[in-house]
Amino acid sequence: MAKVMISLPGAMLRIVDRIAKQEGRNRSELIREALRSQYFERDRSSVRPERARKAYQWIVANPIPRGKMSSVDLIRKMRDERWAK
Questions:
Q1: pTM over 0.70
Q2: Residue 11: which H helix or E strand, with range?
Q3: Hey, where are the domains in the chain?
Q4: Residue 64 in contact with residue 74, Cβ under 8 Å?
Q5: Would you state the pLDDT for residue 26?
Q6: What residues in the chain have per-residue pLDDT under 50?
Q7: 8 A C-beta contact, residue 78 and residue 58
Q8: How confident is the model at residue 44, as a pLDDT?
Q9: Which of 23, 30, 73, 85 has its CA 20 to 30 A from that of 66?
Q10: First CA to last CA across the chain, in angstroms?
């Protein structure tokens, strides 16, 4: 895991330390979880509708006869076309 150095105002650091102690964590765990919940979880949920829309558009534009391709084959084909660009 990479290490970074950040600067925090003294009051904020005291709050971080207090919360970390209350939750039985260290600073790194607390800050990592705060970043994850604030940015990464939010971003992941906002990306899904867009990805679903693109997948639907691709399926509509590339109809596949029933029984000719499994869902795994379909996903691989979509992935291969995406990475070919």
A1: no
A2: helix 10-23
A3: 10-84
A4: yes
A5: 92
A6: none
A7: yes
A8: 55
A9: 85
A10: 32
